[in-house]
Specification:
Its EC number is 2.1.1.74. By secondary structure, this protein is an alpha+beta fold. It has 13 helices and 17 strands. It has two domains: about 280 residues, FAD/NAD(P)-binding domain, CATH 3.50.50; about 150 residues, Elongation Factor Tu (Ef-tu), domain 3. The protein binds flavin-adenine dinucleotide.
């Protein structure tokens, strides 16, 4: 008899992982703490509960990276996608579902699977041996969170994500912005030009502060503590403390010379820092925020140089337990220091229902292969699933690592064919390549 794989957490990731493992013919034991131990966001004791919106976002597998991820999960016989399809609600191009019916059928499918068994209860420490997948999500219980922090080092496990917006580099107007590190610091030319800078004059700065103060903000959920205030104030809170606070904080103009107008001293500067090894994504330094998404887009596009920016993700601050995966996990999603422990879902530093379920799918397949004495590597980085797992386990900057949605900025750039320009041509080329490469990976 093959040794079972144990899964901690029956959320989006854990449920998908369990399904994949059972389908591979390997027994699986699910350890879920609800309902005995509650979280502030879950309402039921069902598997794969959607705690907030009921949407799996775009289902367009030609023009959208998350739609492409749906396609890959369907191709891999994913339970989450199958049940989402069964309980689909009309929502234009998005895949929205009847959340209660969806979770109930994921639960029923797992309970009906002969190789799946349930061992209810909270897991409070890291198991010493066996095959394990830890998929305890953004609201990992305190006891397990402490055990993970003890193993990884406290600084490698975050309890909040303070996300600054991330911009596609090719949408920054470099006729206005310029590349320079503050005081030209750095040993190499690459380091001396590591940041992209957007200048503001006094009028632009004043208008920006007014817009920040007036913008609509989201509130914390009940039960979410506001311990974030120590290290990472939202920019709107800084602006509330005084109109000049940002100019002496993340927007300080010192040590920078506008390459386009060297004679003009900027009144304030917004800096963007590289966010991935490919150099396709940049985050706005120090710009974590609780502004609503619509307001963020308006306010950030008023920054000179970002008027046409497209955002790979917008900013936020949430309760979220996640690992510094680029330093802690190998490419098979195993903890480097204890390879019998695999992580999956939002705790690995992906963001969102679909991305979490996709990481569950992958971890499940890899764990099942291992239990059967085989080895399975990740899909190529040209696929949505591969791009995401490569990002979290190596492609992302470890120092500034924050949870990530899937997006085309994570894909290796595609060779432009004659006449191929803009997104309208590039995106179908990305998804066409992804489908071919994912199918090959599955077949292999
Ligand atoms: C308040 C809030 C709102 C969100 N809104 C959205 C949204 O609108 N859209 C979106 O895409 N994403 C949203 N997210 C992110 C969302 O949580 C994830 O996308 C998704 O649920 C992550 O899947 P997961 O399987 O990693 O974690 P989860 O789905 O949270 O599953 C983890 C499971 O592990 C269990 N568990 C935790 N600790 C233990 C333990 N020690 N022992 C046993 N079981 C344990 C939990 O009870 C839970 O069932 C939100 C998150 C939060 C906190």
């Amino acid at each position: 008899m093959t040794e079972p794989v144990h899964i901690v957490g029956a959320g989006l990731a854990g449920s998908e992982a369990a399904w994949q493992i059972a389908r591979a013919g390997v027994p699986v034991v699910i350890h879920e703490m609800r309902p005995a131990v509650a979280t502030f966001a879950h309402r039921t004791s069902d598997c794969a509960e959607m705690v907030c919106s009921n949407s799996f976002r775009s289902d367009d597998d030609v023009m959208n990276a998350v739609g492409q991820l749906h396609w890959e999960m369907r191709a891999a016989d994913g339970l989450i996608m199958a049940m989402a399809e069964r309980h689909r609600l009309p929502a234009g191009g998005a895949l929205a579902v009847d959340r209660d019916a969806f979770s109930a059928s994921v639960t029923a499918a797992l309970r009906a699977e002969p190789l799946v068994s349930f061992a209810p209860g909270e897991i409070t420490g890291l198991p010493a041996d066996g095959h394990w997948i830890i998929a305890t999500g953004p609201l990992t219980s305190d006891a397990l969170g402490r055990a993970i922090a003890a193993e990884t080092g406290a600084e490698a496990l975050a309890f909040f994500d303070a996300i600054a917006p991330i911009v596609h580099a090719d949408t920054i107007d470099m006729d206005i912005a310029w590349r320079q590190s503050r005081y030209d610091k750095g040993e190499t030319e690459e380091e001396r030009t590591a940041y992209i800078n957007c200048p503001m004059d006094r009028t632009q700065y004043d208008a920006f502060i007014d817009a920040l103060l007036a913008a609509e903000k989201t509130e914390f959920h009940e039960g979410e503590t506001a311990g974030y205030f120590d290290g990472c104030l939202p920019i709107e809170v800084m602006a509330e403390r005084g109109r000049e606070t940002l100019r002496f904080g993340p927007m300080k103009p010192v040590g920078l010379t506008n390459a386009h107008r060297p004679e003009e001293k900027p009144y304030a500067v917004v800096q963007l820092r590289r966010d991935n090894a490919l150099g396709t994504l940049y985050n706005i330094v120090g710009f974590q925020t609780k502004m609503k998404y619509g307001a963020q887009t308006d306010v950030f596009k008023s920054i000179p140089g970002l008027q046409s920016a497209r955002f790979a993700r917008l900013g936020g601050i949430h309760r979220n337990t996640f690992l510094n995966s680029p330093t802690l996990l190998d490419e098979r999603m195993r903890l480097r220091s204890r390879p019998h422990l695999r992580f999956a879902g939002q705790i690995t530093g992906v963001e969102g229902y679909v991305e979490s379920a996709a990481m569950g799918l992958l971890a499940g397949r890899m764990a099942a292969a291992e239990a059967l004495g085989r080895d399975l590597g990740p899909p190529p980085g040209t696929t949505s699933m591969g791009a995401l797992v490569h990002h979290i386990t190596g492609g992302a900057e470890a120092k500034t690592f924050q949870p990530m949605n899937v997006n085309f900025g994570l894909f290796p750039p595609i060779e432009a064919r004659a006449g191929r320009r803009g997104r309208k041509d590039r995106y179908p080329a990305y998804t066409e390549r992804a489908k071919t490469d994912f199918s090959q990976w599955l077949a292999g």
